[in-house]
Structure of Short-chain dehydrogenase:
Amino acid sequence: MSMLSQIFPPSPTFTEEHVPNLQGKVCIVTGAAVGVGYQLAKMLYAQHATVYIATRSAAKIDAAISSLRASAPSSRGVLRAMVLDLSDLATIGPAARAFLDQESRLDVLVHNAGIMTPPAGSKSKQGHDLEMATNCLGPFLLSRFLQPVQQRTASLPDASPAAVRTVWVASMLDGFSVHGGIVFGGGDGKTDSSGAPVVQSNAMDNYMQTKAGAVFLAHESAQRFPDSGVVNMSVHPGLMRTELQRHQNRIVKHAMGVVFKPAKFGAYSELFAGFSPSITAAHNGRFAIPWGRLGTVPRHIEEALKGRERGGTGASRRFWEWCEQETAPYFVQA
């Protein structure tokens, strides 16, 4: 799909008006205290879903829950807090276990939270690049903890085919992603335990590596667990005015404010990926674009999604294995 079509997309065709009654369905939306995540949570709660607002600030969660309740006073849904810091891998297991103590199902998990271009050299609690930790490693680990309950949900009698989903929020890869999606260390291009993703000196290149990483993780999840009943989608939510631009300079933020759409439009993209009935099991691992359409990734990303045995670069597989390696010490199940 052309870059121009993603910058100036047609009007959304799947909105809150098309969402069925979600009473009894359980959803987690990371970063749902503000911005796109908040707008998505608002749509789901209005349709009576149980929505977990997942972010690191309990105060922000409480404020969001109060606001969401006021926005839909007749909702029969439930709003709950899920306190975790995606940039601190040690917080994810306890948060996931607390969720599992309360819920026996998980219908849709939306990896919405993210960070873009923080100060150069920013590191996570475990010493990883802050963007890579927040945008990829944290979501990867959270999904590992929650995959069993998603699989059980997909097997329940009331589960429609392809209705249990994980949404990985990416970005517009055309014209912006580094060649191959992610640059690995080592230089030989072979999968090994030493070749971590290289932190890019260009701030936007570094951010875009993590967004290609989200596409890789959605694809690999689909490839590795084809019979799980869980559909994984990556999505470019669109160009919007959100807190994601908080680290940009004043001139750039002003330009973005003029061109970009309100956060609600990005929520439509995520809503499509997570809830549209037009998404089927055949779309597992696919990429969606604004404001809710199936799209395609650039050719060099397609090559990264393929293994070497199929003429690709194997970058997607290599990235999954690196994420698995880095999060393994924190993947301790009760």
Notes: Residues 188-193 have pLDDT under 50 and may be disordered. The chain is about 40% helix and 10% strand.
